[in-house]
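ok so for the tutorial part 2 we go from a plain amino acid sequence to predicted structure tokens. step 1 is just haveing the sequence, like this:
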Amino acid sequence: MAKTYAGRWTAATWLADRGFGKPTVNADAQAPFRRAYANDPLNFSIPDQFPSLIMAAGGTPHRSSSAGRLNGIWTLGVDLSHRVEARESVLAITLVDPAGRLKGAWKISQSLDETVNEQNLISLLEHCRSRLLELSFTGQILVLRDGRLFENERYETYSDVLNCEVSVVEIRKRHNPQVVDGENRSIRAPWAGIVTKTNTMFISTTPPASASALANVLKVTWHPTRNRLNLEPSEIAEILISSSAAPGLGQRPHHLPSAIYWADGIAGASDEDLRFRGITIN
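step 2 — the prediction. this is what the tokens look like for a chain of 282 residues:
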């Protein structure tokens, strides 16, 4: 039930009265309009803000949980974004609970490098461990590494610092093959398929955005020694698909698993790209 204000306003009325969700500027608005990019028109606000407003107020727009033992597995997103013009890279880590709710986000800058600085990684993981203690964490963690896990990025670092068993998978977002049905059309439902006799899987977590669009296909790889949770490929696929339906900035589903969605956006946020600038980051 919506909370009332002064005994007569609902939460939706309170937000609308202050300019949120309206297509044009409200001269009496007490809150600024949210824009996705710095060059967006000042006299318009972007649509689909309601989930963002709920989360900003400490609420949960909806939940997206897996079944059975998977319901106790948290996800940790790790992304390294590169800003060539600034000669720096940004490492971001996000923590998402089994219901798909963002529970923590941390980032740190380092010299421009395609590999993660281990001390920076340890520092962020220590903050994450503190957050897990605050939340009375008792589950398990699936680490979603955006891109390649390089040789200097030791798998053991995650389990040692977080003080729990983890599985680590690598997720490649780009330059993946399209998979079509018998009529050469994109499959219009979430799907996953493993390459025979390998630890490589291709997955599409959401249907194509339109009838003419192609699916967003992700490549997921893992090493058996890094799968301490003994997750089956079907279980990994279920977690990723469920996580992609978790709350985001707007009302539309995002094709990235939640922890990667947040980490990728936070690491790439800038003075031009404003979409993830409002997320609380330590």
